[in-house]
Write a structure and sequence with these properties.
about 425 residues
C-alpha cells in the first residue's frame, strides 16, 4: 500500500489545478455572449444554476473516483455500474464524440478572438483559417511531445486565472448595479436554459477522475479536489458575469457576442484590457484544445484497448497514441468548420448533461459500494435530467438543427456500438477465447 502511494505524484493543489484548468479552458470565453443573449441581467443567476448542476455531479464523481481509481474515469464508472453492454459502449463512444464538440467550441472561440485582435474585419476565410490553425498546431505539438501538454498546463492555468482576476478587480469601481437588478432579468425558463447552454464551461472537472491513480491520499484529496475546484470556478464565473453585465451595456455585449469578455474589460482598462483578455482567451482556448486533443486521444486509446473502439486507435509510438490523436483532430476540424458557435455550445452542453445524468444514475446504482448518500444522488439525477430536458425542449423551439445534430450524435453512438459490438468485437473476443483454449 505504501509503495503504491509513493508512486503517486499529484498532490491536492495539483489535483485542484487539473479541475480548474479543465473548466476555465475556452468555455467561458466562448459562451458568455450566449448567456447574456438569453438571461440578460440575470446572467449571474444562469452561471449559478449551471454551477449547482456541476457541484451535485461532482459529488457523484468524488464518490466514484475514490472507489474506482482508474485512468478511464467516466468510462470506468459506467462500465462498473452497467457492465460491458450496449448502454455502456454507446455512452463511452458518446463521451469521445462530446470531447470533439468541446475542441470545436474552443477552436471557434480562438478564431473569434484572433480575428478581433489581429484583423480589422471578420471574414469567412480567416474564420476557417484560425479555426483550423487552432486545431492543427496542437495536433503537431501532441504528436511531437505529449509531455509538453501536461508540463505547460499548470502554468497556463495560473496565468489565465490571474489575468481574469486582474480584470475583475480593476472593474469593481466601474460597476453599475442597476444593470444587475431583477427588472432586467428574464423569466425562469430562459434563466434555466441560459444556465444549461453555458454548462459546457463547467464540464472539465471530470478530468480529475482520469488522474485518480496518480493523486496522493486519494480518499481525502479526491473529494476535496472536486469540491474545491468546482466552488472556485463557480465564484470566478459569478464575478466575471457581474463584471461583464455591470460595466458594459447589454447592446455592446450582444454586438460583440463571440468576444464579449474582451469588451467587458474595456471600461476599466481600455484597449489594454481588451488586448489582455483577448490574449488570455487565445492562450486559454489554445491550451484547452491542446489538453483535450491529448485527453481524447488517450480516451480513444483506452476504449480501443478495452475493445470498444477499433484497434487502429491503440496504435502507439513513443508513448503517444498517434492515430487516436490524429483521428480526434480530424473530426474536430470537420465539426468546428461546419457548425456555428451557438449550436456547438448547445450540443456540447447537452452531450455532457446527458453523460453526467448517466454518471449520476451509475453512482445511485452503486451508492452502497461507494458509500454515498442516496438522497443526494437522487437529487443529482433529478436536477441533471430536468436541466437536460429543459435545454432540449427550448432549443427545439428556437434551433431545431442543434437538436437534430445532438440526437444524431446519440444515434451514431448507438449504431456504432450495435454494429461494431456485434460484427467486430464479438468475433474478436471469440478468436481470443479459442486461442486461449
Amino acid at each position: 500500500m505504501n509503495n503504491k502511494n509513493n508512486t503517486r505524484t499529484i498532490g491536492l493543489l495539483g489535483a485542484i489545478s487539473i479541475g480548474v484548468g479543465g473548466m476555465v479552458g475556452g468555455g467561458i470565453f466562448a459562451v458568455l455572449g450566449e448567456a447574456v443573449s438569453l438571461a440578460h441581467g440575470a446572467t449571474v443567476i444562469a452561471f449559478l444554476l449551471a454551477g449547482i448542476v456541476a457541484i451535485l455531479t461532482a459529488y457523484s464523481y468524488a464518490k466514484l473516483s475514490v472507489k474506482f481509481q482508474s485512468k478511464g474515469g467516466t468510462v470506468s464508472f459506467i462500465d462498473e455500474a452497467f457492465g460491458h453492454n450496449y448502454l455502456s459502449g454507446s455512452v463511452n463512444f458518446m463521451l469521445w464524440l462530446s470531447y470533439l464538440v468541446t475542441i470545436s467550441l474552443y477552436a471557434v472561440a480562438f478564431s473569434s478572438y484572433s480575428q478581433v485582435l489581429f484583423l480589422d474585419n471578420e471574414t469567412k476565410f480567416f474564420n476557417h483559417f484560425f479555426i483550423s490553425l487552432a486545431i492543427l498546431l496542437p495536433l503537431v505539438i501532441n504528436l511531437i511531445s505529449a509531455s509538453f501538454v501536461s508540463k505547460s498546463e499548470s502554468f497556463i492555468v495560473f496565468i489565465k486565472v490571474v489575468l481574469l482576476i486582474v480584470v475583475i478587480v480593476a472593474s469593481y469601481s466601474y460597476l453599475d448595479y442597476d444593470r444587475l437588478s431583477p427588472k432586467h432579468w428574464e423569466g425562469s425558463i430562459s434563466l434555466l436554459v441560459a444556465g444549461m447552454i453555458i454548462f459546457v464551461a463547467y464540464e472539465g472537472f471530470e478530468l480529475i477522475a482520469n488522474s485518480a491513480e496518480d493523486i496522493k491520499n486519494p480518499k481525502s484529496n479526491l473529494p476535496k479536489a472536486f469540491y474545491i475546484s468546482v466552488i472556485l470556478v463557480i465564484i470566478l464565473y459569478l464575478l466575471i458575469a457581474v463584471t461583464s453585465i455591470g460595466t458594459v451595456s447589454e447592446d455592446k455585449l450582444l454586438e460583440a457576442k463571440d468576444y464579449a469578455l474582451a469588451i467587458a474589460a474595456k471600461p476599466a482598462l481600455g484597449q489594454i484590457g481588451f488586448t489582455i483578455v483577448s490574449v488570455t482567451a487565445l492562450l486559454a482556448t489554445f491550451s484547452a484544445i491542446n489538453a483535450t486533443i491529448y485527453g481524447n486521444g488517450r480516451l480513444g486509446y483506452i476504449l480501443a484497448v478495452d475493445g470498444e473502439l477499433p484497434t487502429v486507435f491503440n496504435t502507439e509510438k513513443n508513448n503517444i497514441p498517434t492515430l487516436s490523436v490524429i483521428i480526434t483532430a480530424f473530426f474536430s476540424l470537420i465539426l468546428a468548420n461546419s457548425i456555428n458557435l451557438a449550436q456547438i455550445a448547445i450540443i456540447g452542453s447537452a452531450s455532457f448533461l446527458l453523460i453526467f445524468f448517466i454518471v449520476n444514475v451509475a453512482a445511485l446504482k452503486l451508492y452502497k459500494q461507494i458509500k454515498a448518500s442516496k438522497i443526494i444522488l437522487i437529487i443529482s439525477c433529478i436536477i441533471s435530467f430536468i436541466a437536460l430536458s429543459t435545454l432540449i425542449i427550448h432549443t427545439y423551439q428556437t434551433d431545431k438543427n442543434a437538436v437534430i445534430i445532438f440526437f444524431a450524435f446519440i444515434l451514431v453512438s448507438i449504431l456504432f456500438e450495435v454494429l461494431y459490438g456485434r460484427f467486430v468485437r464479438k468475433h474478436m473476443f471469440n478468436r481470443e477465447y479459442k486461442k486461449e483454449n
